[in-house]
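Side project, low priority. Logging it here so it doesn't get lost.
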Amino acid sequence: MARAELNAAKAAKKDEFYTQFVDIEKEMNAYLEYDENVFRDKTILLPCDDPEWSNFTKYFAQNFERLGLKKLISTSYAPDARLINKQPTLFETTNPNFDEVKSSSQGRIFSLTRDVNNDNRLDVNDLEWSYLEGDGDFRSEEVCELRDEADIIVTNPPFSLFREFISWIYSAEKTFVVIGNLNAITYKEVFPRVQANKLWLGATNFNTGMYFRVPDDFVYAPTYKFEREINGVSVNRVPSVCWFTNIDHGRRHQPLSLMTVADNKKFSKHKEICGIGYRNYDNYEAIEVPYTDAIPSDYPGVMGVPITFLDKYSPEQFEILGATQRGCHDEVPDTKKYDDYWEVRPDGSKTGSSGGKTNENANLEGNDGKKNYFINGEGHIIQSAYQRIFIRHRMVQA
């Protein structure tokens, strides 16, 4: 196997994460609790899906009538397209549609629109399937046509293709619920829409990570210490995974209960704040708030918070002004550059990098001795405070 094919195969293996039924049900129930008709009379498309492994098709097919769906469509990748050696199952080989050649080289399309078995109900037993013309790639013309037909797109796309996938959805201006890594918030394809309140995190809290079904031959990291099997199925825990959506749910309208600046200084459980208060950035007119529960309730100015804040974000309580990634903080401009600084390791040795690499990061004066820092010829030292989102209270006046 050529190196490019080997790398692609490794990436494909890393993308084989199948969402558990209980996690899908929990998330969809949050939208239904907010609006019981959210899926009614809608065509749902589940791209990048494999009904024999994935539970997205199973969930929507089994709840077709309860949700009031108009049509359900799901598509899967061809094994050859993913460089995965997946043998046809009895489900496929015993069906009249089975074609040994097409099975490996062409994707499949599943649809549910009618009572195939005449049992007076529409459910998973009425799914019909056939081979796609191509390999099932969501970027193909035939899957794009299905996207355009759909009202709502729901899936767990390949993690390695998340940027392309979310842009693919935006290009058709569709309603969606998809799973991705939390760090995708910082992507240029994502954050501007978060700031404009056109995209937000789903209802499920992501602090504990999420377990996904994986192939039986999945290779775990040597240091892996979480569950490897749930209900007899091989699983892998993926931290910092969340749902991205533009469907409303009640959790995003629940305001945070917070302490004042004074009370945080007295009683905060965080050593960075208790007895100290809040520090100002060296290069932004804003204060550093390293934890979401430490956001002061009465501070009227700009605050820098971790990206995990978005899990608790209520648009009625806060406005998002920007973020530290380049091109995303026009409303909170940086006040200085660090091109004449150089990077230093905690042991005092130089890394060879200039301070320009920390331009536009949220930087604090000082050195905690735990991570790299930056220094200039005058001895001024700063450290990055990691990715930050800039927010401000909506109702607190200066």
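Brief comment: Residues 1-13 have pLDDT under 50 and may be disordered.
Revisit when time allows.
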